[in-house]
């Protein structure tokens, strides 16, 4: 019987329910040292607080005060998404649980790991991602690039969870956006047409009726292009809006300002809304019939984005404008630049450094024309990880003077791509050996003997990466509403950190264990079980890299 794919959250929930306490008492272990003895732990301090009565007897100081019937309930846990448990015992550290590992391997390595597919046609909401950096008339800087890359990655994460996404603004066809294309950023382009012109006219008419706005006539003392002055501060105070800069006061409105608002309105109209019969999406407020607007902005331009936010609330006091939230990126500091560096220069510099690092490592091979695409992909990976592996609120420091791009560092995008390519090489070698008759083809997962997987690194790969991967993607896509104000926090660094840690643990395992052994039948069971495990690891790499618009490399 198909018991469903086990999950971390479902197992922890079942463990907590078995103890009959509302508090979350259990934690999942992740370190190799602790995983030798246990997979889940309810720490002794938490148990003492949850069961204050204790147990009589001389071992009270060493054993958590948990009734025997509760321990028995944990041991007998079963469920469609619960890991199969082998034993629960009381230890000085707390209640320790171990999983029946061969059965866990069997249940997890059958279907491909990844997020659960959404029902056909079903959606769990809609988000308009607005990246104001793409409206800048000046050349893009690294700080702009950070917010654009973040919005692009977030869009992929949301879509993977079945959320409809609209990206704003459309790229002007009058400018060159080569750096975005080189970084594989997928962003819509276009002029907007007559519908946008009509929307601008409607907003201008709304301004004329607005008590907060005063028309401006061109003349001495009036900034060029300004058509209205709008009192923002009084509106913020009247509405009791929280989280806005106290220096918001008078906004000088131009045609371009209204065009920005019109484009946002058009996106709201085009964005598919969630099914009104479906429960509200957990990551947004409960107005399931409206899409949410997230302004992704760097901290240096946050003030201007707040001005646009308030103006939109004034001119269009609908439910969607009330759902505006701001995802603010921290500063990008460039160390000792000889002059301000543009995004194009930054990309070309990193590409040259990646080429030089590859020549040092791979010699003449890296100078072959076939490596051009490899170098391009490694450069994109290096930049994306450099920009996205840090929490978006924190500062990033770019060291452009020294060659900080390396093919050896364990925390870089190049290292992740290198390990993805090692997996491709492994399976290419296996396939060639099958075609030559050295090995038989890989049998179906149902016929494999997973009790052969006893190496410490094998359980580490399954328990820390294959098991939680769908939940990692879900958590990375969450945009919980703020407790107050307009700022939200996203875990946009989660996927990069996950891939870096996976690469480190996979590399350690791969360097230690010989996968394709001698072609002796008595060794095939273990080899096939390991190949099935690593095929699942490969699929996790590919799925995670897809959220970064990074294709897997077949060679490196």
From TrEMBL:
SMART domains: DALR_1. One of its GO terms (molecular function) is ATP binding. Residues 416-556 form the DALR anticodon binding domain. Pfam families: DALR_1. One of its GO terms (biological process) is arginyl-tRNA aminoacylation. InterPro entries: DALR_anticod-bd, DALRD3, tRNAsynth_Ia_anticodon-bd. PANTHER family: DALR ANTICODON-BINDING DOMAIN-CONTAINING PROTEIN 3, DALRD3 PROTEIN. This is DALD3 protein. It comes from Rhadina sibilatrix.
């Amino acid at each position: 019987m198909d018991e469903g794919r086990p999950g971390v959250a479902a197992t922890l929930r079942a463990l907590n329910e078995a103890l009959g306490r509302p508090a979350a008492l259990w934690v999942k272990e992740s370190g190799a040292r602790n995983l030798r003895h246990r997979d889940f732990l309810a720490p002794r301090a938490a148990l003492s607080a949850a069961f204050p009565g204790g147990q009589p007897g001389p071992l009270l100081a060493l054993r958590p005060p948990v009734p025997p019937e509760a321990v028995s309930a944990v041991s007998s846990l079963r469920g469609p998404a619960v890991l199969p448990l082998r034993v629960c015992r009381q230890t000085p550290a707390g209640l320790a649980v171990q999983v029946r590992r061969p059965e866990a391997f069997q249940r997890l390595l059958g279907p491909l790991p990844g997020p659960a597919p959404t029902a056909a046609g079903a959606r769990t909401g809609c988000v308009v991602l607005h990246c104001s950096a793409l409206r800048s008339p000046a050349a893009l800087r690294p700080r702009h690039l950070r917010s654009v890359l973040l919005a692009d990655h977030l869009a992929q994460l949301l879509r993977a969870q079945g959320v409809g996404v609209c990206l704003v603004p459309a790229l002007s066809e009058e400018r060159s956006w080569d750096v975005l294309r080189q970084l594989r950023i997928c962003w819509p382009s276009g002029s907007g047409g007559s519908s946008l012109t009509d929307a601008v006219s409607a907003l201008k008419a709304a301004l004329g009726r607005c008590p907060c706005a005063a028309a401006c006539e061109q003349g001495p003392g009036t900034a060029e292009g300004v058509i209205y002055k709008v009192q923002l501060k009084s509106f913020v105070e009247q509405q009791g809006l929280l989280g806005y800069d106290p220096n918001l006061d008078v906004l000088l409105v131009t045609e371009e300002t209204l065009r920005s608002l019109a484009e946002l309105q058009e996106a709201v109209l085009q964005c598919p809304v969630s099914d009104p019969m479906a429960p509200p999406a957990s990551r947004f407020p409960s107005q399931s019939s409206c899409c949410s607007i997230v302004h992704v902005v760097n901290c240096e331009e946050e003030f201007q984005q707040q001005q646009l936010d308030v103006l939109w609330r004034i001119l269009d006091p609908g439910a969607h404008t009330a759902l505006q939230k701001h995802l603010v990126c921290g500063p990008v500091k460039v160390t000792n630049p000889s002059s301000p560096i543009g995004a194009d220069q930054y990309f070309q510099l990193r590409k040259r450094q990646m080429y030089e690092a590859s020549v040092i490592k791979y010699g003449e091979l890296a100078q072959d024309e076939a490596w051009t695409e490899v170098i391009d992909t490694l450069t994109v990976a290096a930049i994306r990880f450099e920009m996205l592996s840090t929490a978006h609120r924190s500062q990033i420091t770019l060291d452009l003077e020294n060659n900080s791009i390396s093919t050896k560092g364990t925390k870089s995008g190049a290292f992740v791509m290198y390990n993805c390519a090692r997996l491709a090489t492994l399976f290419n070698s296996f396939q060639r050996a099958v075609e030559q008759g050295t090995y038989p083809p890989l049998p179906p997962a149902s016929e494999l003997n997973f009790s052969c997987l006893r190496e410490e690194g094998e359980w580490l790969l399954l328990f820390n990466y294959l098991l939680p991967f769908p939940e990692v993607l879900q958590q990375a896509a969450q945009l919980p509403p703020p407790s107050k104000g307009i700022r939200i926090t996203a875990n946009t660094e989660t996927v990069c950190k996950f891939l870096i840690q996976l690469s480190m643990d996979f590399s350690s395992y791969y360097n230690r264990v010989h996968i394709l052994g001698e072609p002796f039948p008595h060794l095939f069971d273990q080899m096939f079980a390991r190949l099935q495990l690593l095929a699942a690891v490969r699929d996790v790499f590919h799925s995670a890299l897809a959220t970064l618009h990074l294709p897997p490399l077949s060679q490196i």
